[in-house]
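Hey L., structure's done. Input below.
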Amino acid sequence: MSSRSALTRNLVLAALFAALTAVCSQIQIPLPMVPINLALFAVHLCGALLGAKWGALSMCAYALLGVVGVPVFSGFASGPAVLFGKTGGYILGYILCALLVGLLSRRLGFTFPKLCLSMVVGVAVCYLFGTIWFMVITGMNLVTSLTYCVIPFLPGDVVKILLAALLALRLQKPMRSMGFAL
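Output:
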């Protein structure tokens, strides 16, 4: 495959994963401060299948689409106020999560346990970054912030990680046939 067609393929897949993240962001359970949604499922899958570079670029595209006004954020929200608001750290954390999942899944190996471990590390960093951001913006303490932003999400994140790892393994063969080194 030529470098030009590989670049085109990577750009298209990055755009598709940005779109998948936008769709998964709308599938949500509203909560008082931060809604539960499926965005991290798409982020995990993106990092695992596209790797660190293209996974992170895909999530950058997702964030930029939202900033310029495309309603891709949870609840069809958009604009700089969302990105720089109380949940913006989690949105930016998607970039770090995809980067880490891509990096670790390549370094540790593409097996179910190692994919799950990569995704746990990715979501932990996303939560760390997002929760610190949330605390700075809202002025809430750590315990209150964890109560709003982390604890209610943990059971769902276990399910998202397990499903994303299973799906990544199922898609491994077709992705390899497209030229990806998983």
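The first strand starts at residue 28 and ends at 29. The longest helix spans residues 39-67.

-- N.
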